[in-house]
Amino acid sequence: MSERSYLEEISIRNLGIIEQSELELGRGLNVLTGETGAGKTMILTALSLVLGGKSDSSLVRHGSERLIATAQFSVTSDSKEQLDEIGAEVDGSSLIVTRTVNSDGKSKASCGGVTVPAGTLADVTEPLIEIHGQSANSQIVKPARQRELLDRFGGSAISTTLKSYQDIYGQYLELKDRIKAMKASANKRDGEIAELEEFLAAWAKLKAVRNEASTVEDDIKRLSSVEDLRIASSGALGALDSEESGALTLLHSARRFLDAAKGKDSRLEEIAERVAESLFILDDASSDLASYATGLEADPEKLDHLQSRKAELNLFIKRWGGVGSADDELVSLAAKAKSGKESIADLRGGDERIAELEKELAQVKKLLLDAAQSLSAARLSAATSLSTSVTTEIQALAMPHTKFFVEVASPDYASALKESDFTQLGCDEIAMQIQGQVDGPKIGLGKGASGGEMSRIMLGLEVVIAKSHPVGTYIFDEVDAGVGGKAAIEVGKRLHALAQSAQVIVVTHLPQVAAWADTHFVVKKSSDGSVVQSGVAKLGQSERVEEIARMLAGLEESSSAREHAAELLAMRG
Question: What family does the Swiss-Prot or TrEMBL record give for this protein (predicted)?
Fold first, then answer.
């Protein structure tokens, strides 16, 4: 498989009926099987959490304080730039993402060792994984998602054309805004020119830098309170490090007592772990306090300079800025200064300048029209190819008479187009439809397909699209709904085909699908009457025969089912 991201491992603690499970996933087709209620969907739930999905306290295992879901991804160099922006650490090519949910519903997320909002997890992992279940099927009925899938399939032919269109569209909007602003200010240009010139001179003299206001404020607070800070840090350090009654001394003593009972009671060992963790945290804090106290130094001259600078910045913002924070106002004023000379040139040009820009706008609009037509043509070509390819796929998936169509509706470029016909994504409307029988009506996705059929259409789409624009990992839940027999074997074949260019993870009840796996996991449930636990085991070849035989016969120790299972496994060659 070519170099791309994939999911290496997922670890789960206290989620639903799962007490603790770990899955080391392979690069090809990974299949999860097991009895109904054994917790297979809990594994997908855990993955949804680390991908930034919505948390819910009801997911926490009964009697536990919190659930923890951790995923380890192998990421490509393309992903590292986005990860660097949030400060995430990548160990080699491995990225660790963790999500915890407490029993009170509070949730925390970390990415590469950095605490981040759940929404950031979604942004970071969105290019890595696609999940297809009922919720994903509901997304595909949306025109925006259908346009996105077509553009992905079209590859560079569409992306290059779209980029060219968007560049011209940006120029067009910018020119329109400039002309509009110039016309609005025609009657007050002299006053504005004088004010802009005064502002630019004052800004050049100020020489402000980004975040200077908050930095100056913080330094003033620190230098104004050196003695208070020294007392606070030294006192805290003493309370931690005192040889007789310091917190660290007492914690060391507590740890020695607990270590003496190590291995005698798991509950006490959990407490001991928390004490040890507290000891490490306080020890780090003690070192930081010592370093902080050493670095404190009064500097009256610097304090006077900072207070003068603060007054200078505040006076400038009061004169030229708004009511936002000082740093935000300085950013806005910097942008105003950057475009100030151009604004003055626009104001001085007057009506002649407006006429020049309107002439330029007409030329850009012609270029925009040509670019929009080129984009429509590229999409139309891709739509024809995608329709044919997906139809071939889904007809082999127990939908022999169904045809798939991607319709590209474009405006009449020969007529006078309205302003609203142009958008950031072109002038086309994309509609995916199916035809259930020969000469039957074309019906939009979501209106003429069941949940199981939608899952198979999604599978057909992804198999086709993956050849031109693969995602690192695909996850399918309920892709085999309403399928059996020969069609189930075809589902397995196509998942296997998709796994040649990407990692695929499938939850299935069908032995015909499970037989195509490169890596097979079984989720088992056991109950002692009060506590339900679920474990995940990776199967060897002989164990796979037994599991697939169980799936076939619904019972253990069936020799005929084992023979059938061996036949299914032999299909992979």
Answer: Belongs to the RecN family.
